[in-house]
């Protein structure tokens, strides 16, 4: 497990901040979202499982290994013809401290998950419970939402999606980011003069400079013709 002080620092950090730090390579695609709204905040260390699409036997095996702070990350290859499992499969693991589920596929019992405040992220909701016949692999590198996730990687999820911090970079990323301040109105944002000096201002300035250069080049080509 990662040191507790590292995980505590991620508590106030959103998925967008993490995504900006780790890049697209470690940001799950837009189809991976909370299965209920408002999204339950998700933070924890990946407990990975690779499961044959349409079978969920290995998910039950993985849940037996869940510990406090684990996030079950399921590689189901985007299968949504059935659910990975439901709330009853999670109860014992939740009591041991399971922090959430991220599945490249579907889940069910969304109303109950919302009621108990347990975060589940995935592609869809499906009522159908699939077969339990095939073996899978637990605690191996998996692909979920287009991202390679290894056991122990940090998972951060919220209304904006899911981002992954490789375990080996977790402390550096935690040190580099700061918790976001709550925002209730437009007045909670920095004044314009401060925005001009931050990344937003830099992006706007860079765009305007590039646009002016493009315009000059276009006009010069027109005169030459």
UniProtKB/TrEMBL annotation:
Q: Which residues bind Mg(2+)?
A: 109
Binding of substrate occurs at: 86-89, 108
Q: Is Metal-binding one of the keywords?
A: yes
EC nos = 4.1.1.112, 4.1.3.17
| Pfam families to which the protein is assigned, alphabetical | RraA-like
Decide whether keyword Magnesium is in the record: yes
Query: Required co-factor?
Result: a divalent metal cation; Mg(2+)
- Catalytic reaction equation(s): oxaloacetate + H(+) = pyruvate + CO2; 4-hydroxy-4-methyl-2-oxoglutarate = 2 pyruvate
Keywords per UniProt: Magnesium, Metal-binding
Q: What is a single molecular function from GO for this protein?
A: 4-hydroxy-4-methyl-2-oxoglutarate aldolase activity
> What is the annotated role of this protein in its UniProt record?
Catalyzes the aldol cleavage of 4-hydroxy-4-methyl-2-oxoglutarate (HMG) into 2 molecules of pyruvate. Also contains a secondary oxaloacetate (OAA) decarboxylase activity due to the common pyruvate enolate transition state formed following C-C bond cleavage in the retro-aldol and decarboxylation reactions.
Q: How does it assemble?
A: Homotrimer.
Instruction: Write out the similarity annotation.
Output: Belongs to the class II aldolase/RraA-like family.
Q: What is this protein called?
A: Putative 4-hydroxy-4-methyl-2-oxoglutarate aldolase
Organism listed in the record: Rubrobacter tropicus
